[in-house]
Amino acid sequence: MTIVALEDQEQLRIEKIIRGVAIYLLSGAAAFSLEVVVYVGKGWLEGPYWWLTTFLGVGIWLVAPYAGLSALILKKKHTLRQLVLLLFGSLGIVAFGIFILLDGFFVHNDPRSWIIYVLVPIYQWIAVAATAGIRYSIGLKIML
Questions:
Q1: How many CA atoms lie within 13 A of 119 on its CB side?
Q2: Gap between the Cα atoms of 91 and 22, Å rounded
């Protein structure tokens, strides 16, 4: 094998690792978000109506930004720079979501904490859009 082929294989391996870490981060954050909904809503005490209305509605809304970013990572072809950006974007979005959910429901528990279910995904979608925009701009070739 030539040196170029070995470098290409090494780069593909690194890209696969970065992609995997980002997906694991996003999957873990999605699972954590669903666990918070069950814990806060005392889902183990509720009947099927709660699971079909509250859990599904809030759960889909909380998981949607993670699913959107995961789809972006998996469905598009990226350069190594773009993948690193997506990894750090994922890390920021996950850290923000987990921190706000922990703070709002476990540290500073308040009856008005339910608004977090509405606001966190909105901010996360803004961050996903910004990350996707920066990812796209990294891929542009500027001709001078």
A1: 9
A2: 7
As given in the structure block, the two tokens for residue 116 are 């977090």
Q: What share of the chain is helix, strand, coil (3-state, %, to 5)?
A: 85, 0, 15
C-beta of residue 89 within 8 angstroms of C-beta of residue 65: no
Query: Within 10 Å of residue 110's Cβ, how many Cβ atoms?
Result: 10
Read off the amino acid at residue 16: K
Coil, strand, or helix at residue 142?
coil
User: In order along the chain (144 residues), what is the average pLDDT of each group of 10 residues?
Assistant: 71 91 96 92 85 90 96 89 94 96 89 89 97 87 54
Enclosing H/E stretch for 114:
none
Cα separation of the two ends of the chain? 37
Give the integer Cα–Cα distance in Å for 81 and 75. 16
Is the Cβ–Cβ distance between 97 and 124 less than 8 Å?
yes
